[in-house]
């Protein structure tokens, strides 16, 4: 047996993936982690579940042809790759007290505490990872943060695979991106920039590189996607940080060869910055990004250029001919070229072959992670010997061509409707007119209380749906169970004293999939889960054709719920941008065209809801921020079509119909104009985790319509106390005029249990009463 741990100088693998799903083909990790949290399995059982997934994934990728050393990415994570990096750096925020154990390590419980919070502390803030629907945990860095190698999880993961005969390529977030994604810790002085701690984290990276080299790693992958984004610090500062970081890391005495990866867009000017360092390989995204100039590529010298030509973020079969052409160009200008995906494939499911319920035609158009591994392998073969890949390339070309003419892809009725749209279809009356009409129709108290839509999806609800799908429960029985649940949700809200009620969305498996299942142009998967955050997964639908509404979707449920109460019942829809963002969307026409088709379908649904007597309709757009292009130059175009599609969906509503929207998960400051542009009468926004930061943006913008900054963080089981909520509301009324303010949680309650939900919602009402009374005092 060769000594696998001996130092080596292998070339970068000709074919590899930038990352791979880590949740398991059947969401084994989700199940194990949740069982561990529930105390049903111990740490050893969790560890062996994790190892089983790691090994299965590595073996699968080898089977698919990624057999070279370091071709299999070591991208496993128990929760999040940024949290992993925080753990390796020991960057535990001071507010958590002493989380490191006696050996100075962050054990698995400490790790989960950062992710989920504890009785005293909110978890780390969560936000979107670049332009994806994946969320990472935001590091909190201050002048006081101490850095020490507090975890060797990545070394252990590597050693475990190696012991099983597979040399993987350990992955960790690179130092510059790590600090650029961090926020200043609570106590940090004004103007403190986490990037100023660069010198202090580098020694920990160096120590980690040493341990990886000692364990036998030939390559390590440092992920630097922040370099493809326009940062709010000068480019020259970013460049200096990169130069310094990689000067130190490449000078480490014992280290694996270093691949720096830059997924999610074009690296542009920073390519030269990396070219000037001594790293061994540089990955660039040439799927979403463009092929750099020959001169820029020549600057890479002896470094391997890892070409991300296969899209890691969407599921369409690769246009191998187009990729081959890009590779030719790259090869002509750069010395060594290897093939990979544009991003980690953690954003797409495992395997199309599992989706046997899809038509053969649709399946032939798709590539999930495993198919992408084969595509990458084919393209690497092409680079070595173009003739060897000819059959595969021709087949891909033919299949892609078949999409253009397939039934349902372009429908004359749908196209006629979008082509006939005029400016008037995108606008409602002036807000003052609507406000008066709504006041008259609704008579709401000051600081109206409401929730965001979903109530806990109990195991009874989920099992009823599963049994209905299997045919064990008739549609009639299922419908009755959902109605019972709606009744329970309505009476709970009545009892708690909420002003605007919801039906609780029990009938929806998912806020996008539910609509996808009821619209033409979509298909849904059975096993196509992708990680959203932690143990949470979603199953994006596939939007492959022209979209139309077959029949009313939500009306009967809303109508039933409204019949149970004299309070206004909110109709609940998912907006066009979110439907697109959380589906895998066709790539053969501009997103704006697809969004308008969805907008029109929703517009018809709103008209039907109004006709059924629903006076308030919420159109959720939690993903509005997520699709925002990373480069500032591309943002205006996106904001125009996304805002337009929402307006198209909602502008048919009568003046007296109150249109709500809901946004969550992100910093909104940058898109506040667009949020205003949606022209919704009421906007609820996530704010509890970030402790009401958003109200400052709203204030400085002069946001003039209704707004509900969330006062209950629903992402953790923690119950907010009455005083805590009172405090948040008191902050809000200082910045937002009370007549505009609404009281609501951050988001829907579907992931919560009833016990904590009831208690929390009760505290919201009590706090509202306190603040309302205070408002009356000030008026007197
Ligand atoms: Zn939400």
From TrEMBL:
Requisite cofactors: Zn(2+)
SUPFAM superfamilies, per the entry: UROD/MetE-like
Keyword line: Amino-acid biosynthesis, Metal-binding, Methionine biosynthesis, Methyltransferase, Repeat, Transferase, Zinc
Pathway(s) annotated for this protein in UniProt: Amino-acid biosynthesis; L-methionine biosynthesis via de novo pathway; L-methionine from L-homocysteine (MetE route): step 1/1
Sample GO molecular function, one term: methyltransferase activity
EC identifiers of the protein: 2.1.1.14
One record GO biological process: methylation
Name under which the protein is recorded: 5-methyltetrahydropteroyltriglutamate--homocysteine S-methyltransferase
Organism field: Arthrobacter liuii
């Amino acid at each position: 047996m060769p000594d696998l741990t001996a130092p080596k100088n292998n070339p970068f693998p000709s074919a590899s993936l930038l990352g791979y799903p880590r949740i398991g083909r059947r969401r084994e990790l989700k199940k194990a982690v949740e069982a561990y949290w529930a105390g049903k399995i111990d740490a050893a059982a969790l560890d062996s579940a994790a190892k089983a997934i790691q090994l299965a994934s590595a073996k699968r990728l080898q089977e698919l042809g990624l057999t070279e050393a370091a071709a299999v990415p070591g991208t496993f994570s128990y929760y999040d790759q940024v949290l992993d990096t925080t753990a390796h750096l020991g960057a535990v925020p001071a507010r958590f007290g002493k989380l490191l154990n006696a050996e100075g390590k962050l054990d698995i419980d400490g790790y989960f505490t950062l992710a989920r919070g504890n009785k005293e502390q909110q978890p780390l803030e969560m936000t979107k990872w670049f332009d994806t629907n994946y969320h990472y945990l935001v590091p909190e860095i201050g002048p006081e943060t101490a850095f020490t190698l507090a975890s060797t999880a990545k070394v252990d993961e590597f050693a475990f695979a190696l012991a099983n005969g597979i040399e993987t390529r350990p992955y960790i977030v690179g130092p510059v991106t790590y600090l650029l994604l961090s926020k200043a810790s609570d106590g940090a002085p004004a103007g403190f920039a986490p990037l100023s701690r660069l010198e202090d984290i580098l020694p920990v990276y160096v120590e980690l590189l040493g341990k990886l080299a000692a364990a036998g790693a030939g390559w390590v992958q440092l992920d630097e996607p922040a370099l493809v984004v326009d940062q709010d610090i000068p480019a020259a500062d970013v460049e200096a940080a990169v130069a310094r970081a990689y000067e130190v890391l490449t000078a480490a005495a014992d280290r694996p060869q270093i691949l720096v990866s830059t997924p999610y867009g074009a690296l542009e000017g920073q390519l030269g910055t990396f070219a000037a360092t001594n790293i061994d390989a540089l990955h660039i995204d040439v799927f979403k990004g463009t092929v750099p100039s020959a001169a820029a590529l020549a600057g890479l010298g002896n470094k391997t250029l890892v070409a991300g030509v296969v899209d890691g973020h969407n599921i369409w079969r690769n246009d191998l001919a187009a990729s081959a052409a890009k590779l030719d160009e790259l090869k002509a200008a750069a010395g060594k070229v290897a093939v990979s995906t544009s991003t980690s494939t953690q954003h797409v499911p495992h395997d199309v072959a599992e989706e046997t319920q899809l038509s053969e035609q649709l399946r032939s158009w798709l590539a999930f992670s495993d198919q992408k591994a084969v595509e990458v392998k084919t393209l690497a073969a092409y680079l070595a010997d173009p003739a060897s890949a000819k059959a595969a390339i021709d087949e891909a070309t033919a299949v892609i061509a078949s999409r253009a003419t397939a039934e349902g892809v372009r429908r004359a009725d749908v196209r006629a409707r979008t082509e006939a749209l005029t400016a008037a279809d995108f606008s409602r009356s002036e807000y003052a007119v609507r406000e008066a009409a709504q006041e008259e129709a609704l008579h709401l108290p000051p600081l109206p209380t409401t929730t965001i839509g979903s109530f806990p999806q109990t195991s009874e609800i989920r099992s009823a749906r599963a049994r209905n799908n299997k045919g064990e429960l008739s549609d009639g029985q299922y419908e009755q169970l959902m109605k019972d649940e709606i009744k329970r949700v309505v009476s709970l809200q009545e009892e708690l004293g909420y002003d605007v009620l919801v039906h609780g969305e029990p009938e929806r498996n998912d806020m996008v999939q539910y609509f996808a299942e009821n619209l033409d142009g979509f298909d849904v998967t059975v096993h196509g889960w992708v990680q959203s955050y932690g143990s949470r997964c979603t199953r994006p639908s596939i939007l492959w054709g022209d979209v139309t509404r077959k029949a009313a979707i939500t009306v009967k449920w809303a109508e039933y719920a409204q019949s149970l109460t004299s309070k206004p019942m909110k109709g609940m829809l998912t907006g066009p941008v979110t439907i697109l963002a959380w589906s895998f969307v066709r790539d053969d026409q501009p997103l704006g065209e697809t969004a308008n088709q969805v907008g029109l379908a929703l517009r018809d649904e709103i008209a039907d809801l109004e006709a059924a007597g629903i006076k308030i309709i919420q159109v959720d757009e939690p993903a509005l921020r997520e699709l925002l292009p990373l480069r500032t130059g591309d943002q205006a175009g996106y904001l125009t079509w996304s805002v337009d599609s929402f307006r198209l969906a909602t502008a048919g509503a009568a003046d007296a119909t109150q249109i709500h929207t809901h946004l969550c998960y992100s910093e909104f400051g940058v898109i506040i104009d667009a949020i205003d542009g949606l022209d919704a009468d009421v906007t609820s926004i996530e704010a509890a985790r970030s402790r009401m930061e958003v109200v400052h943006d709203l204030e400085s913008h002069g946001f003039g319509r209704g707004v509900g900054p969330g006062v209950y963080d629903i992402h953790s089981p923690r119950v907010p106390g009455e005083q805590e909520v009172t405090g948040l509301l008191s902050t809000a009324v200082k910045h937002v005029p009370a007549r505009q303010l609404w009281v609501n949680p951050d988001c829907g309650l579907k992931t919560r249990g009833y016990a904590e939900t009831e208690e929390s919602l009760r505290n919201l009402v009590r706090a509202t009463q306190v603040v309302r009374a205070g408002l009356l005092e000030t008026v007197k």
